[in-house]
Each structure stands twice: as structure tokens, then as C-alpha cells.
Amino acid sequence: MTKKIRIIYISLSGNTKYFVENLSNYIETTKGLVVESLNVKDLKGETFSVDEPFVSILPTYLNGGNGIDNGEKEVLTTRLGDFIASNHNFKFCYGIVGSGNRNFNKQFCLSAEQYTKRFHFPLLDVFELRGTQSDIKRIANAIINRQEEFLKSF
Ligand SMILES: Cc1cc2nc3c(=O)[nH]c(=O)nc-3n(C[C@H](O)[C@H](O)[C@H](O)COP(=O)(O)O)c2cc1C
Fold first, then answer.
1. Of the residues 60, 91, 106, 144, which has the fewest C-beta atoms closer than 10 A?
2. pLDDT tens digits for range 20-36
3. Ligand 1 mean position to 128 CA, how many Å?
């Protein structure tokens, strides 16, 4: 049976969706794995049990501030957290990749870091905006290696 990579993510303005499409294409063509992805934005708030290992990708949207003494509140992407929390789905999530914009300084990828504390899975990597080809190669390898490790302990 061909091994699968499942990616559960949220993309509001399309950058993460673009990255996931390129990442999926790279993994399928160079690694011989099948990729299934789900943009939680398309779910209209419903949740269901995943029951299979997956990686998550989360862009950062915070409500202002500087990420040091204020500005830590996640907005707009909370539906991904709700989906991961529902039906014990977090037990199947073996890691998260954060995305954002480095112009936000201390707030760069802060939401993904917050999810690691909330759900106790590791931050695998981060990238900016739509990512680069080198982000895709590096993150593809990080995901595949982490999934292998997770499956051994599963
Ligand atoms: C209102 C708003 C707030 C944002 N806040 C942050 C932030 O706090 N930290 C960060 O790294 N990026 C921040 N960003 C940048 C987004 O995370 C980045 O544009 C990301 O690629 C958006 O992903 P999407 O197009 O898949 O929704 C913000 C963008 C917007 C529009």
C-alpha cells in the first residue's frame, strides 16, 4: 500500500494553500507518497474524527500588539485549533509547521508555537508567506522523517 501524508491546515488569504499545493506536488513526484490535504476553512465549522496520523500547517493571525507584553491572541485561525481539539484529533497530529511574515518580529509564527504548548506536539519548521523551493524541500523531509518516527511509536 502506498504510504500517505495527510496535511490538515487553514489558509485564509491563499498563501498557505499555495504552499500546501506545491509541497504536495513535490512529495508526490519526488518521494512517491500520496498526499491528502484538508483546508479547515472549507469545513464551515464542522468537525469529525481523523483517526489517522497527520501534520498541521498554521499561518499566524494575531490581534495587534508586539508579541512581547501584548498581542498574543490568535484570531481568524481558531477553527484549526477547534478541529484539532475535537474528537481527540490532537492524538494523531505528529507535528505542526508555522507560517507568517517576519515583519511581525516576535509574533512571527507565534500561533504555531502556542499550539505546541496547548497540544504537546512538536514545531517541525516555519516558513514565510508562500514559501520558497528550499522551504518545500526542507519541510517535506522534516514531515516525512517525523511521520516515520511517529508511526514507530504508534
Ligand atoms: C491581519 C493579519 C495579521 C497577521 N499577523 C501576523 C503575525 O502576528 N505574525 C506573523 O508571523 N504573520 C502575521 N500575518 C501574516 C500572515 O500569517 C501571512 O500573510 C500568511 O502567509 C497568511 O496565510 P494565508 O494566506 O494562508 O491565510 C498577519 C497577516 C494579517 C493579514
1. 106
2. 999 999 999 999 999 99
3. 9
